[in-house]
Design a protein that fits this description.
Layout: E1 4-6, H1 32-48, E2 64-68, H2 85-105, E3 116-123, E4 132-134, E5 136-138, E6 143-145, E7 148-150, E8 157-164, E9 184-185, E10 199-200, E11 209-214, E12 217-230, E13 233-247, E14 256-258, H3 266-269, H4 271-274, E15 277-281, E16 292-296, E17 306-311, E18 321-322, E19 324-329, E20 332-333, E21 350-353, E22 360-362, H5 364-377, E23 385-387, E24 390-395, E25 403-407, E26 410-414, H6 416-419, E27 420-422, E28 428-431, E29 433-435, E30 444-447, H7 449-452, E31 455-460, E32 465-470
Parallel strand pairs: 2-3, 7-14, 8-13, 21-30, 22-29
Antiparallel strand pairs: 1-4, 2-4, 2-16, 3-4, 3-16, 5-6, 5-12, 9-12, 10-11, 11-12, 12-13, 15-16, 15-31, 17-18, 17-32, 18-21, 19-20, 19-25, 23-24, 24-28, 25-26, 27-28, 31-32
């Protein structure tokens, strides 16, 4: 089978405050390290408990499975498990910091049926990077690939054979252009060459090349086209980067498929097929099976779903900005200044829906109001403690108040599993959110994947709307 990789473990990335199109380096947030350390303590017990057999439902014409790349059933699960839990978590932390830096850098034949349902499952500890994965193939004959699915990125890239710095796994994840009869490099004069970041055409070169940064890492690639397949659906002449060199360890090692809104994103390249519409249901990290789904196209999307307005930011065209207007704890709407949620394209301020960030980050006044009210409601649970970057924790189980994220036109009330996180032994329970880093990212609210899990999250770009509907898609571990 072939594999695609959905990036949800993303770090807590956000946008830089910039008035130019120049990408600038961003200081890492020291608060992310403890969050990564805690995540390792939470995920490792599940990673060690592999099922007796790995039954994977077949991909269908309209359904593509998604699983976490380091899942016990995944062929990409690292064979070397000698690293300590603490070392693995340190790597998670580094990846999260890079993810924030990456979000900060953002500006911008067979005919498919028009829909595709792609099964999703969580993977764990893939090269110390937690992500969701789906199956796909590239080229003729089809070559299996794992690609991170990133809602805040546009370009697709795949590690190609002879790539310098590309990670190797127990199963080859590299694409061999010489083995594909449909592969073709794109010339420097092609329209796509003008759409990639930092294009280059060295003297004497016949094809276009480009380079980009992703967090603290970089990619150098040649621009090319080939056939991309998801489930049984085939996308002809898909434009992507054939990676020739990678530096750093924050880049999804099997490649990336961008679901942003830029000209070379999957949504843009398949606009005539899927009408720039998709949704996903992300299972929890505990799931070992292909129980989530990525649905491409308007067919099969929820008939009744509450939605909010999707905003456009020309300076950060890839990102899915929404109109967040408040937070309610229990029945009380918190006293948060409107400026905490105000959308400002010039500074990047506002709220985004991001499948790759792990824990929701709120700007300082919004988080402080939520934290203080949460603590007041669970005061009887005992003194407040901290665990890593989480500052609202309790020894033992608690009965949390309902937390509702309020958007223009819809409310999303979080079940306890989406609002709390537990230590390995279950002896400590924490509010699974944190304040935005006290740097250039301090103006951006990021609604992250822990808060999205077991919801159908619907993106309808033509009609400028994003919707949430409760949908349990986690299979029993």
């Amino acid at each position: 089978p072939s594999f695609i990789y959905i990036n949800t473990a993303r770090s807590h990335s956000t946008l830089t405050h910039t008035h130019t199109h120049t990408h600038t380096a961003m200081a890492s947030s020291p608060s992310l390290l403890p969050l990564g350390l805690l995540l390792l303590l939470i995920l490792v017990p599940f990673a060690l408990a592999a099922p007796s057999h790995c039954a994977t439902p077949p991909d269908q014409r309209s359904t593509i499975n998604i699983f976490r790349a380091s899942d016990p059933c995944s062929p990409f699960r690292p064979s070397d498990r000698s690293s300590s839990w603490e070392d693995t978590m340190m790597n998670f932390m580094t990846y999260d910091e890079s993810r924030l830096t990456y979000l900060a850098s953002l500006a911008t034949s067979h005919r498919p049926s028009g829909r595709s349902f792609v099964p999703i499952a969580p993977g764990r500890q893939l090269l110390q990077i937690p992500n969701y994965v789906v199956r796909a193939s590239l080229g003729t004959p089809a070559q299996p690939m794992l690609v991170a699915l990133d809602t805040s990125s546009d370009a697709a890239w795949f590690p190609c054979t002879a790539c310098t710095g590309c990670a190797s796994t127990s199963t080859s994840a590299s694409f061999d252009p010489s083995s594909s009869t449909t592969y073709r490099p794109l010339p420097c004069g092609s329209p796509q060459c003008a759409q990639v970041p930092n294009p280059s055409c060295p003297e004497g070169a016949a094809s276009c090349a480009f380079n980009l940064t992703y967090g603290g890492s970089s990619v150098q690639a040649g621009l090319a086209q080939d056939i991309l397949a998801l489930a049984s659906e085939v996308v002809q002449s898909y434009t992507f980067g054939c990676v020739q060199k990678m530096t750093g360890n924050s880049i999804p090692p099997q490649g990336l498929l961008g679901l942003g809104r830029g000209p070379l994103s999957f949504l843009s390249q398949t606009k005539d097929l899927y009408a720039s519409t998709f949704s996903y249901c992300l299972p929890s990290f505990k799931s070992l099976n292909f129980s989530g789904t990525l649905r491409l196209g308007p067919i099969g999307q929820p008939k009744k779903i509450k939605t909010t307005t999707l905003l456009s930011n020309a300076r950060r065209s890839s990102l899915y900005y929404v109109s967040m207007i408040g937070i309610r704890v229990g029945r009380r709407v918190l006293d948060i200044p409107p400026s905490a949620f105000a959308f400002d394209p010039a500074t990047g301020a506002g709220t985004i829906i991001d499948s790759g960030t792990m824990f929701t980050r709120l700007v300082a006044p919004a988080y402080a109001a939520l934290r203080d009210e949460f603590r007041r409601r669970v005061k009887a649970a005992g003194p407040v403690t901290s665990l890593g970057g989480f500052d609202t924790c309790y020894n033992g189980a608690i009965k949390p108040p309902a937390i509702t994220l309020m958007f223009l036109g819809m409310n999303v009330t979080l079940p306890p599993d989406n609002a709390l996180i537990h230590s390995t032994a279950g002896s400590i329970t924490c509010l699974a959110m944190a304040a935005a880093p006290d740097n250039v990212n301090s103006v951006l609210n990021v609604i992250a994947n822990v808060q999205q899990q077991n919801h159908r999250v619907f993106f309808d770009v033509p009609n400028a709307r994003v919707g949430f509907a409760r949908e349990f898609c986690t299979a029993a571990a």
